[in-house]
Amino acid sequence: MTALDFKLSANLTWGEATDSSSKPELVAMNRIEAERFKKQMQHSATTLFQPVRDKFGALTCTSGFRGSKLNPAIGGSKRSQHMKGGAFDFVPRHAGLQEVWEWIVYESGIPFGQCLLEGYGANKKPRWIHISTQVGRDPTYCDQVGYGPAHALAFVSHENIAAERAKRGVWPGLGDGESVA
Ligand SMILES: [Zn+2]
């Protein structure tokens, strides 16, 4: 069994990435299931979570791996990448959700499958950021950017994403020092 303080990346532990505050009774089972996704979780933590942590400081991981019991119990999608250790939900402790989301999408160059503002409640404001990996995902469904309530997610078009990236002078995929101009 993996120790709870095992570091998936510099600032994300196994304990945090396999926890559930709303379904504590399912956490022990969830951690057993998570073992076979450990490598994927390390990769996701290193490539998705850690770059955001390095830029903005502490992040609270509100959901990481969700196995076959936990995922349906919290209402997760049947095809959720949380079930394969390929997604995290988090809240920045020292920066705004919108600011962090825009940086990930338009400036970071992080190779995400989806980056979504989620958890819209009665006040119509997001409560966390969902980020998932491109690994094992159809390229058609990579670089997807969305926001809004789960039942009415609005996606930003790839044209608009590209335009905004160009405006900010950043284009993921180019090597260091290359300009878009
Ligand atoms: Zn999520």
Number of helical elements: 6
General form: globular
Helix share, percent:
25-40%
Q: Per DSSP, what share of the residues sits in E-state strands of 2 or more residues?
A: 15-25%
Please report the first level of CATH classification, the CATH class.
Alpha Beta
Q: Average the pLDDT over all residues and give the rounded result.
A: 93
Q: Summarize the biggest pleated sheet.
A: 6 strands, mixed
**Cα-to-Cα separation, first versus last residue:** 51 Å
- How many domains make up the 3D coordinates? 1
Provide the fold topology.
Blueprint (H helix, E strand, L loop, with lengths): L6 E3 L2 E2 H4 L9 H8 L3 H19 L2 E5 L6 H4 L13 E6 L4 H12 L3 E7 L9 E6 L10 E4 L6 E3 L1 H10 L14
Parallel strand pairs: 5-7
Antiparallel strand pairs: 1-2, 3-4, 4-6, 5-6, 7-8
Bound molecules: zinc ion.
The site of zinc ion has 5 residues, from strand 4.
Structural summary, described in words:
By secondary structure, the protein is α+β, with helices and mostly antiparallel strands. It has one domain (7-167): Muramoyl-pentapeptide Carboxypeptidase, domain 2, CATH 3.30.1380. The chain has helices spanning 14-17, 27-34, 38-56, 70-73, 97-108, 158-167, and strands spanning 7-9, 12-13, 59-63, 87-92, 112-118, 128-133, 144-147, 154-156. The strands form 2 sheets. The chain has a 6-stranded mixed beta sheet with strand order 3-4-6-5-7-8. Strands 1-2 form a two-stranded antiparallel ribbon. Strand 7 and strand 8 form a beta hairpin. The protein is globular, with a radius of gyration of 16 Å. Residues 63, 82, 87, 89, 130 line the site of zinc ion (ZN).
